[in-house]
Amino acid sequence: MKKRNEKQVDWNKQIIDTIDALTLIADEHNIPRDTAVEALKDAIIKAYTKEYPETVLEVIIDIDNKKLAINKLFNVVENKEEINDYAEITEDDAKKHDPNLKVGDVYKEMVHLSELSKLSLGIHLSQMLKHNVTNQSNKQVYSLWKPRIHEVVYAEIEKVDSKSGIATVNLENTFGFVGRQETIPGEVLIPGQKYNFFIKDVKEQTKGWPIILSRADAGLVKYLLTINIPEIQEKIIEIKDIARVAGFKTKLSVVSHQVSVEPVGTVIGPRGSRVKIIQEQIHGEHIEVIEYVDDFKRYIVNVCSPAEIVGFAIKEPAAPEERREITLVARSDKLALLIGKRGSNVRLISEMLKANIEINTIEEAHEANLQYNRVEAQSLRQQTFNRAYKRYHAGSNVLDQYNRSAPNRNRPGGVSNNPSNAQQQTNNAKKQKASILQEFKDLNKDDLLKELIDVEAPKNTSDNIDGDNGDDYQE
User: Fold this and answer.
1) Reported pTM
2) 301 Cβ contact list (under 8 Å, min separation 6)
C-alpha cells in the first residue's frame, strides 16, 4: 500500500513538472498560456488515439492549480449484445458506475498517466507538443510580421551556416533568414554586425524560420534612396521604375514634379556624392539613374542608355496579362554593352520596360524583314541639316524672311534704305533661298539613311528618335 502511494506521488509530481514545463515554453515563445494548454490537450489526444483510433478523449488542464485529468468518453446506449467497446457502453453497465446515467448520457472513465507510459506514448506526446507549440508560435509571428512585407529592418546577424550559406537574423521576438540567393555577391555577412534587410516574404509554416529577408532585392535600394535623398522623401522626385541585378547594377528612372528640380542630377548629387552613400551600403554596387518620360518609345531609348541602339520594334500583347515583346536593333560592335555581363543589362532593361526583350543586329533585322522604329545616329553635319529642315518644314522665319513683301528695315540684316543696296540684298536672299530649296530637292532619303548607319553615333538620347510620321522603314 505504501509503495502504491509513493508511485501515486511520483505521477502527481510528473503532472506538476509537465505543467511547469508547459508554462515555461509558452513564456519563452511569447505565446498565450491558454494557447499552450490547448496545444498540450491536442498532443495528448493525438498521441492516445494513435494507438486507439476510435477512442474519444476529454483532457482537462488547470494550469493555475497544476492539475491534469484525462477521461475516456462513452455514449450510453440501449442494452444490446453488439456495441463499440471504445466509444459505447450499455445502460446497465453504466448504471453500475453511476445509477443516474441513462441512454443518451455520456459516461466518463479516467485514464491514468501510467496507462500512457505503458503504451510508450511519451515520445509521441513530446513530438506533438513541440509541433503544436511551434505551430502556434509561428502563427503569432505570421500575423505580426505579415503586414510588414516590403519594409526594411535594421537587424543583427545571429549566425551564418558555412555549408548552406544561410544567415540567421535576430529580429528580437523571432528570427529571419537570408538565403544565399538573397545576398549580394561578394559581400560577407559578419555575425554580430547589423545590416539593412528587405522583408521579402513571411511564410506560415512549422519548419524553419518563417520570415524571409533579402539584401539582393531592388526594394532595399529604393528604401535607401528614399531615406537618404530628401527630394524623394518629400515626393518632389518620384522613382518610377527600378530594377536590380545584385552585385552588378541597379537601374532606376526618376521624374521631377517641380520644374525647377532636375531629377537625375539631384539624385546623383555633386560628383555622385549622394549615390556613393547608397553604394557604400550595398557593397559598392553600381547605381545608374535615368530620366523617365511618358512617351514609351522615347523611354525605351533612355532605358537602353548608355548602350546604343539603332532602332526597336514593339509587339503589343494579345492579352492584358501578357507582356510586351520588344526587339532591340543594334550594331554588331555595340552588342556587348547592350547585353551586359551574363545578360545582366538585358535583364535590367526587361524589368524596367516590363517586357520580353530580344536583340537583333542590323543584319539580322534585315534578314528577318523586321520593320522597326529608327533611332537616329547622326553626325554633326547631319544634325545641323536636320534642324534647319525642321525649322523650314514648320514655317520658321529662317526661310519665311525671304518671302516678305515688306521686309523690316529696322532689324539687323534687313533691307537697307539705299535702293541699290536693298535690291542687291533682295537678290542675294532669293539666291540663298533657291540654293537651300535645291539642296532639299536633291536630297536622296536612301543615301541619307545609309550614311546614318555608317557614321559613328553619339550616345542615344530620347530626343533623337523618329516619331510616328511614316518614317518607319526596313533596314
Assistant:
1) 0.62
2) 309, 375, 460, 461, 462, 464, 465
